[in-house]
Amino acid sequence: MTRPSAALIDLRALRHNARVMRSMHGGRQIAVLKSNAYGHGAVACARALGGTSDGFGVAFLEEARQLRAAGIEGPLLVLEGAFDARELVEAVAGGIALVVHHEDQLRMIERTPLPRVPASFWLKIDSGMHRAGFAPDAAAAAYRRLQATGQAHSITLMTHFARADEPDCPATREQLAVFEAATQGLTGPRSLCNSAGILAWPAARRDWGRPGIALYGADPLGSSASPLAPVMTLRSHVFSQRLLQPGEALGYGGAFRATEPTRVGLVALGYADGYPRAAATGTPVAVDGQRTRLIGRVSMDMLTVDLTPLPHAGIGSPVELWGPTIPVNEVASRAGTIAYELLCNVKRVPLQYLD
Ligand SMILES: *Cc1c(COP(=O)(O)O)cnc(C)c1O
Q1: What is the CA(152)–ligand 1 centre distance, in A?
Q2: Do 256 and 207 fall into the same domain?
Q3: pLDDT tens, residue order, the chain (355 aa)
Q4: Would strands 262-267 and 303-306 be described as parallel, antiparallel, or unpaired?
Q5: Is the CB of 124 under 6 A from ligand 1?
Q6: How far is CA 239 from the centre of its chain?
Q7: Angle between helix 61-69 and 85-93 (nearest 10)
Q8: Of 195, 235, 309, 314, which residue is least crowded by CB atoms under 10 Å?
Q9: Where, in this chain's numbering, is substrate bound (predicted)?
């Protein structure tokens, strides 16, 4: 038997989520596929989303190149923009849209003769996240300079929310107002919403939505009544078992000590596959479709689960680390992180697609 560990990627669920986000937001949709589609495989996801999205967003040019090399033709947007003039020229020549978010990038476009093909730029305004983007009072001047280069076929006005996943926090409403004021009188499509923006802030929906995490079915609001379906199932098998006697310790650091006879299942998946080592005893896992718990410390290639409450489970029983039974959000919160990090850390296990 080969190692029974894999990440199953349900492309039907991906398409479902893309349709949900698109109809909720209205307008057009950039499906964000950066970081290998949050660990789900960018090329396969791009192919699956061809009919339900209007373009794909990636973080940097190399990610766009990989999509183009795999034959993905539709509109691509590079969310960090170009790092140098060579990238700028290559992107424009390849019909790849670029975010422009700081002075150096703007100056690069002013100084570099670009290929004579329609170039699309997304001008990013810092409406309050204070990470990237032109200051609100510099937005109109940046827009006019971009226009004055004569090299921008279209300019989309965008911003990014810092706290859209907090429906009761006023920060997003303030960002929205700052963006509106900064872009007043400037023509061009608008794009404000990431996944949480689309889900929680109807007033921020505009011409283009930019969902990422929601496409993969991990609701950023942590809502239990989410309309989204999980896309990835991280799974393995129990491949060995043993009985711990009261007082016996399990695994590295003796992090778990049995207080009663405890049947332990050994699972062929560890932190080298992207399962978080920070997940401690008590983190939920499913064995044979039933919830039980992780016990002991996660090691590089293996982890251990409690089979005591599941008398019929044993060697060969399927294990779900996250997926439809165990929400990835729940594992993330047990590990002190967010679903984004867990999903894009998945590695070493093969990705298997369900279409
Ligand atoms: C990553 C990213 C998104 C997608 O964010 P999610 O929270 O995953 O929906 C949207 N816009 C920009 C600029 C991003 O960098």
Answers
A1: 24
A2: no
A3: 689 999 999 999 999 999 999 999 999 999 999 999 999 999 999 999 998 999 999 999 999 999 999 999 999 999 999 999 999 999 999 999 999 999 999 999 999 999 999 999 999 999 999 999 999 999 999 999 999 999 999 999 999 999 999 999 999 999 999 999 999 999 999 999 999 999 999 999 999 999 999 999 999 998 878 999 999 999 999 999 999 999 999 999 999 999 999 999 999 999 999 999 999 999 999 999 999 999 999 999 999 999 999 999 999 999 999 999 999 999 999 999 999 999 999 999 999 999 9
A4: antiparallel
A5: no
A6: 31
A7: 30
A8: 309
A9: 131, 300
Task: For residues 192 and 268, state if they share a domain.
Answer: no
Residue finishing a domain among 187, 216, 245: 216
The residue from 216, 240, 262 where one domain ends is 216
Residues 169 and 282 in one domain: no
Buried b (16+ CB within 10 A) or exposed e, 286-310: bbbeeebbbbbbbeeebbbbbbbeb
To test the pocket of ligand 1, the residue of 32, 166, 201 to mutate (highest count of ligand atoms within 8 Å of its CB) is 32
The CATH number for 264's domain is 2.40.37.10
Instruction: Find tokens 């006019």 and name the residue.
Output: 144
Burial of 46-85, coded b for 16+ CB within 10 Å and e otherwise, reads bbbbeebbebbbbeebebbbbbeeeebeeebbbbbbbeee
* Any domain includes 26: yes
Q: Which residue do the tokens 């093909």 mark?
A: 117
Q: Is residue 45 part of a domain?
A: yes
Residues 210 and 319 in one domain: no
Do 243 and 312 fall into the same domain?
yes
Mutate to test the pocket of ligand 1, among 76, 194, 329 (most ligand atoms within 8 A of CB): 194
Let me know how long the chain is.
Answer: 355
Nearest Cα to Cα of residue 265 among 231, 288, 248, 247 = 288
Number of domains in the chain: 2
The rounded distance, in Å, linking the Cα atoms of 326 and 284 is 7
44 plus 176 within the same structural domain = yes
On whether residue 192 sits in a domain, the answer given is: yes
Task: Give catalytic status of residue 38 as yes or no.
Answer: no
252 is catalytic: yes
What global pTM score does this model have? Answer: 0.97
Residues 326 and 204 in one domain: no
- Cβ–ligand 1 contact at 191 (below 6 Å): no
